[in-house]
Amino acid sequence: MFRLWYLTDEDLLTDGTRYELTDTGQGLHRIQSAPRVSRAMHVTLHSTMRSLDLWVGSSVIRFGDKNVPIALMFIDKYTQVGHILRPIVKAIDSIESMCESPKTRGYVDTTFGGARTLKHTILADFFRKGFDGSGADNFFEAISCIDGRLTSERLELVLEPPLKAILPYFQDYRLCRL
């Protein structure tokens, strides 16, 4: 991540790099290309794709448009991923201690087949629906950045029953209140 911040500064401050002041719909922004960050992200993406048996999702990386005007905004959005995922991690981490209560353990065992299955169910639901792009105006914009894929949808509204039924058990499972 440090390298990406460094490359962002290089892209923003290099002599001869032009920018255009544009109303992006979210105010007046400086739109500028980011060739160094773009190259680094493409190398990272393609390296990751080669290391996997199957890639699901978009491989588009965009900079210098109304959705991601400068690389600094791109880097800042991805820096937020840890904060965005924290409620999911807390929910998963709390399942074992939550199941110390015999009544809760019984409910989890009966409804989900145990704590491990519940964890897998929550994660499968999140990864299936949390990145569907439904928070953007269209698919092309959804693929541009993490907020179009992840933060725009109120995930707790798309949770399938019986997952909705377990939300009250999780004190920190408030995905729409990040």
Short description:
The protein has 178 residues and is mainly alpha-helical. It has ten helices and two strands; from the N terminus they run H-E-E-H-H-H-H-H-H-H-H-H. It has two domains: 2-79, no CATH class; 81-177, no CATH class.
How are the SSEs placed, and which strands pair?
Blueprint: H1 2-13, E1 19-23, E2 28-32, H2 35-51, H3 71-79, H4 81-98, H5 102-112, H6 115-129, H7 139-142, H8 146-151, H9 155-158, H10 163-166
Antiparallel strand pairs: 1-2
Helix pairs in contact: 1-2, 4-6, 5-6
Question: How would you spell out the order of helices and strands?
Answer: HEEHHHHHHHHH
Task: Report the uncertain regions.
Answer: 172-178
Question: N-to-C terminal Cα separation, in Å?
Answer: 22 Å
Strand content: 5-15%
Tally of individual domains: 2
Q: How many DSSP H or I helices?
A: 10
Descriptive notes:
- The protein contains 10 helices and 2 strands.
- It is mainly alpha-helical and 178 residues long.
- The protein folds into 2 domains: 78 residues, no CATH class; 97 residues, no CATH class.
- Helix 1 packs antiparallel against helix 2 and helix 5 packs across helix 6.
- The two termini are 22 Å apart.
- The C terminus is likely disordered.
Defining traits:
single chain, 178 residues, mainly alpha, 2 domains, two-stranded antiparallel ribbon, 56% helix, elongated, disordered C terminus, E2_Ub-conjug_enz, Non-canonical E2 ubiquitin-conjugating enzyme C-terminal domain-containing protein, E2_Ub-conjug_enz_C
